[in-house]
Amino acid sequence: MLKRAVCIISGGMDSALSAKIAQNEGFEIIALHFNYGQRTEAKELECFRKIASALDASETYEIDLPFFGQIGASALTDARIDVPTGGLEEGVPVTYVPFRNGIFLSIAAAVAEKHAAEALFIGVVEEDSSGYPDCRASYIEQMQKAINLGTKDETHIEIRMPLVALKKSEIVQRSLALDVPLKDTWSCYQSEEAACGVCDSCRLRLKGFQEAGSVDPIPYAN
Questions:
Q1: Do residues 149 and 49 lie in contact, with contact meaning Cβ atoms separated by under 8 Å?
Q2: Which of 32, 158, 183, 190 is deepest in the core (most CB within 10 A)?
Q3: Distances (CA, A) of 2 to 18, 118, 155, 207
Q4: Among 105, 122, 119, 107, residue whose Cα is nearest residue 16
Q5: In the chain, which ranges are continuous DSSP H helix?
Q6: Does residue 220 sit within a domain?
């Protein structure tokens, strides 16, 4: 019997690996991407398309969510707020986009219900990340309960988060082992031509490659 999974793919390394794991488990991939006014929107969309193609996705969705810019409150969606470049800090950083994953998962659930998909894959990382509250396993588990309560009786969706307890170095290692096209992924919060190398996301990515004993294939300015 055909298994379908909706995979939320940002264009980054984590979500690309998460989707590759879904494919390796025998799921037909429905690739889902969100343009929400983030600083690197064009680059992330370009990467998403390459990743979805490499996964041979049966369906692709590119959904625009311009209201995130109206809400603001994040350095990713409000140009008036600078992206921090001084290193990882304690607490929730200003790059956190309020309730982003909750909104993404809600839309993904609608797509999953349409296609009778049995799983949603999301590349959240809790153990070795920037500290976003919507990346916690306990939160995702509660969203799964809410989604299944709010859909048809015959809809049963499992939210899979295969990377949630991994370190970045382990994500790099598994990506290399599974031939994830890391050269076609993007993590930088603020630059699209060459990654800045100093934002939180770049620092975490570079640290992961260093600890994995590998070289990041994307270009960096610094």
A1: no
A2: 32
A3: 19, 10, 16, 39
A4: 122
A5: 13-24, 41-54, 67-71, 100-114, 137-149, 168-177, 200-211
A6: no
Model confidence at 203, pLDDT cuts 50, 70, 90, reads very high
pTM for this prediction: 0.97
126 lies in which domain range?
3-211
Q: How many other CB atoms are there within 10 angstroms of residue 189's CB atom?
A: 23
- Cβ–Cβ < 8 Å for 166, 174: yes
What's the CATH number where 85 sits? 3.40.50.620
34, β-bridge pairs: 63
The yes-or-no verdict on residue 1 having pLDDT over 90 is: no
In a domain, 221, yes or no: no
Structurally, how many domains does the chain consist of?
A: 1
